[in-house]
Write a structure and sequence with these properties.
19 helices; globular; 19 strands; 6-stranded mixed β-sheet; 6-stranded antiparallel β-sheet
Length: 583
């Protein structure tokens, strides 16, 4: 007889051997406890592993009821129950008493260990300074006083420009919309938000913060800098002509030289023109190492950040051609000529970290960042994933040319005209945008176009409104006076747009709102409905329907949009305006 196969022998043995494999069962039990963290020892083991991953120490109290996760500058107390459940988590920053942390407690209770580990990493990064513990303590103290002074500046009284208080703080606040740091998350400044971002927040109330953010941190420096070790805002505070506080010179308050500097970490990184990068150093007097910057043509940076470069990593110098779909069944064509955008003065870099040494620098830095954001928002409105393809006929053909670091021109051709028209857009700062129209029969339209652009911050939407106005004028139709009222039929999205153009492949049909990056929800549908946006809507109702206020254009010239732009800020500030002690 032949031998039984190995598989048959194994089956017979398994049937006859009823005694369990004790080592295997023990291993399975240990793995089950580790995965489910269903015992005290399993929870302690998991905490010890996370601490070791983040370069921290750990030990268990003699009573085995508290697990300590320790670092040089802070520690955590994790109070445990006999079954391995977490009763409380307390965080003790340097020199402070332990304070219960509800967010850290909930992470451990929910067994979200990866997120808890990220929190540990954030706490450790607050002290990411080379040197001994004494140096780290001094740097952390300086960061604490900086944060307190920024909060004082944020609370200073000022005139409101927007009806939405949070939007007003973001766009116009001296320190933007400030969120105090806690539990490993640094102080956060939201300093810019576009009209489309505002609508995204309206459509999804649970959506996290969008727009441009800056984290207030501290980092190592190749050279030493004098940093504050006390508040530099005297009491009672005094205000200068711009409504900013008068700071005490660092030589008159407690301060020390340290191998570190404060930092604004931009999220996401911001494409900045070379001229704006130079202004950063002029404001802070802290050099930004050119070796850390990677320069590229500005459209390439925008396309890379927006993910619309079709996988290309370099700008080939050719013309960039985009199709922009708009509600109302319109498609615009926008060309960015490669030769014009290749000039050295128009090269830029992605800025992620801005060093500074004094709270006086922050308002000026934010104004400069907002200025750059306004330029980026306008340029980004012309960049999409849609490329020309046979078939669709565009309603408007435009060429976007740079005129300077803060101005651009849009050359376009009306279908019923034999001549070219040019719209010159000048961005003096984030709040002062002016347009000059050079076209036949365009008298007295500059103010109207400027107000439309300020309201939507979109070149295609502005060109759509302008094209309609000029077409009506060419046809001899009566037009309302170009006053403060802007027809929502000109600037508002309307009906869904059928798509038939190429998007680096193919693009299925979708609604007009989705085509410009706004998800279709019940709230946005109500905002952009035809009833809400009808041409007969009154000015008051129109603004209410669009949910964006149109502030009066400030036509007064701005002598210096960055009033704090210098380290020598103390000498030119006025010492005559006293502010009651509100801080």
């Amino acid at each position: 007889m032949g031998k039984a196969s190995p598989n048959r022998q194994t089956q017979d043995k398994s049937r006859g051997d009823t005694k369990p494999c004790e080592p295997l069962i023990r291993c399975l039990k240990i793995l089950h406890e580790a995965l489910n963290v269903s015992s005290l020892s399993a929870m302690v083991s998991r905490l010890e592993i996370m601490a070791k991953q983040r370069g921290m120490g750990s030990h268990l109290s003699p009573t085995e009821t508290t697990c300590y996760l320790t670092a040089d500058m802070f520690y955590l107390e994790v109070l445990l129950l006999p079954g391995g459940e977490v009763e409380d988590v307390k965080l003790a920053q340097h020199g402070e008493a332990p304070v219960s942390s509800e967010s850290l407690l909930q992470l451990l209770k929910s067994k979200k260990f990866e997120e808890f580990s990220v929190k540990l990493k954030g706490l450790s990064s607050l002290y990411n300074i080379p040197g001994d513990n004494e140096t780290k303590i001094k740097v952390y103290t300086a960061l604490q006083f900086l944060g307190k002074d920024l909060q004082k500046i944020s609370h200073l009284p000022r005139a409101l420009r927007e009806c939405n208080l949070q939007v007003d703080m973001i766009l116009n606040g001296r320190i933007g919309y400030l969120t105090a740091g806690s539990e490993g998350i640094p102080m956060t400044i939201q300093y810019y938000i576009s009209p489309s971002d505002i609508l995204l927040e309206m459509s999804d109330s649970e959506r996290g913060s969008i727009g441009q953010l800056a984290l207030v941190t501290v980092g190592p420096s190749d050279s030493t800098h004098r940093l504050q070790m006390a508040s530099v805002i005297p009491q009672p505070p005094q205000l200068d002509a711009q409504g900013l506080p008068l700071f005490s010179p660092l030589c008159e308050v407690l301060s020390e030289m340290m191998p570190a500097c404060f930092q604004l970490k931009l999220q996401p990184p911001l494409p900045m023109l070379s001229s704006f990068v130079e202004k950063l150093s002029q404001i802070t007097d802290v050099a930004i190492a050119d070796a850390d910057l990677q320069w590229a043509p500005f459209p390439q940076l925008m396309m890379t950040l927006l993910g619309e470069n079709g996988g290309k990593k370099t700008w080939d110098g050719q013309d960039a051609h985009f199709l922009v779909p708009l509600p109302g069944k319109e498609i615009h064509s926008y060309v960015l000529p490669g030769a014009a955008w290749e000039e050295a003065a128009l090269r830029g870099t992605l800025m992620s970290t801005i060093p500074f040494t004094h709270p006086a620098h922050v308002p000026a830095l934010l104004e400069l960042l907002r200025h750059q954001c306004a330029i980026n928002t306008l340029l980004a409105s012309c960049i999409t994933s849609l490329r020309p393809s046979p078939g669709p006929v565009c309603d408007l053909y435009c060429e976007v040319l740079p005129e300077s670091g803060s101005s651009l021109s849009v050359t376009f051709h009306l279908s019923d005209s034999d001549s070219l028209s040019v719209l010159l857009v000048n961005v003096a700062d984030s709040r002062k945008l002016t347009c000059s129209l050079f076209a036949v029969g365009s008298e007295s339209m500059d103010e109207y176009v400027s107000r439309v652009l300020k309201r939507c911050m979109s070149i295609p939407v502005t060109m759509r409104a302008l094209n309609r106005r000029l077409s009506k004028r060419t046809c001899g139709e009566p037009l309302p006076a170009c006053s403060a009222t802007i027809s929502t039929a000109d600037v508002s999205p309307a009906s869904p747009l059928p798509m038939s153009c190429e998007a680096d492949g193919s693009l299925s049909s979708g609604s007009g709102l989705e085509s410009i990056g706004i998800p279709t929800t019940s709230s946005t549908a109500a905002v952009f409905s035809q009833d809400a946006m009808g041409t007969d809507t009154t000015a008051t109702a129109a603004e209410s329907a669009f949910c964006l206020s149109v502030a009066e254009v400030n036509t007064n010239p701005t002598a210096n949009p960055y009033p704090c732009a210098s380290v020598c800020v103390y000498s030119q500030w006025m010492h005559n305006n006293h502010l009651p002690e509100l801080i």
